[in-house]
Design a protein that fits this description.
Blueprint: H1 9-26, H2 35-42, H3 49-62, H4 68-94, H5 103-110, H6 120-137, H7 141-156, H8 169-181, H9 187-204, H10 211-231, H11 243-256, H12 266-287, H13 291-321
Length: about 325
């Protein structure tokens, strides 16, 4: 099997689907409907979204490693998007009388999770690519995978597997790591691990036999692991062992079936859905407490708004080129 260098429609479609899954995670979709469904879908299968995003980003970023200007432009675009939404968050926060955070706390959030605490993915993505691109280029990709895995495993003691460790030394180490990188617990460790895996897949182009079977098995293990951890009081659901093979095998599957799924402009929409859904999430609380109704409300408005943003941005790009 040869990994394709170009973007494919299956990846973009899955990014769109997972952007909706992230909405479900943030509002605890199905928690009020069915505990088993909540544990197997929202707290298990939906969690594959962020690792998959990181792997895809690492894979595409690897194509820019030899050209510093291209990689810098890619990072600047993401940074610009982040800064625009962070300025919006700061303005909205200042307009809420009940919120009176110390300046130091606002600065900490800005550099780790975003003011609203959900932009940690974008912060981690930008910083990891900026800090690690030289090491990836020099061939230290496997070393970074190991470093990311180490941080990821430490984090598990304070996250998905917290119920096993209680107040032990390992839990304290996990808590220290969490304190450094703020919420959620995965943070920097997850970005180093999965971005490096994406770079590795680009650089090595591995051959995998029985891929469909491996993907099905890894997804089944993710469901079982998620249900097991959540039924025993796992603090959260960011870090499962099975997320690693499941996200890798899913990505490799997209390389074999690049035209399996097609959603127009899905890749562009997914990022903006992720960035703006939090605002509609606040509004949805006034609409209903039912998580399914909230999910539909947030998803529809987020998709419409994201489509308008993409359309406006594309129009400006065409005008500049003209």
């Amino acid at each position: 099997m040869e990994l394709r260098a170009k973007r494919n429609s299956t990846i973009d479609a899955l990014k769109f689907v997972f952007s909706l899954c992230i909405i479900g995670v943030h509002i605890n979709l199905f928690q009020d409907i069915s505990t088993p469904v909540f544990r197997t879908l929202t707290q298990a299968l939906f969690r594959i979204g962020v690792p998959f995003y990181f792997i895809v980003s690492g894979y595409y970023f690897a194509s820019k490693l030899e050209n510093r200007e291209r990689s810098a432009q890619w990072l600047k675009r993401l940074l610009k998007i982040y800064l625009v939404f962070e300025i919006l968050d700061i303005v909205l926060t200042a307009l809420v009388p009940r919120i009176a955070w110390p300046v130091s706390y606002v600065i900490l959030r800005f550099f780790t999770t975003g003011i609203n605490r959900i932009y940690w993915y974008l912060v981690s993505l930008i910083l990891t690519c900026f800090l690690c691109r030289g090491l990836w280029q020099k061939g230290y990709t496997f070393d970074l995978i190991c470093a990311g895995l180490f941080l990821y495993l430490i984090t598990m003691t304070y996250d998905s597997y917290s119920f096993l460790f209680g107040n032990t030394f390992m839990a304290e180490v996990g808590e220290a790591h969490t304190t450094v990188w703020a919420w959620p617990q995965a943070g920097f460790g997850e970005s180093i691990l999965f971005l490096s895996l994406g770079v590795y897949l680009r650089q090595k182009k591995p051959e995998v036999r029985h891929l469909n079977l491996l993907l099905c098995v890894s997804l089944a293990l993710l469901v079982m692991e998620g249900s097991f951890c959540q039924s025993r009081g796992g603090a959260d659901a960011n870090c499962y062992f099975s997320l690693i093979p499941a996200s890798v095998f899913l990505f490799l599957f997209t390389q074999r079936r690049p035209d399996l799924l097609k959603i127009p402009q899905a890749g562009e929409l997914s990022l903006y859905i992720y960035m703006i859904h939090i605002y509609f999430s606040y509004v949805s609380l006034a609409v209903s407490q039912n998580t399914i109704i909230r999910f539909l409300f947030i998803s529809v408005l987020s998709c419409i708004t994201a489509a308008l943003i993409v359309k406006t941005r594309n129009r400006k790009t065409i005008q500049k080129q003209g």
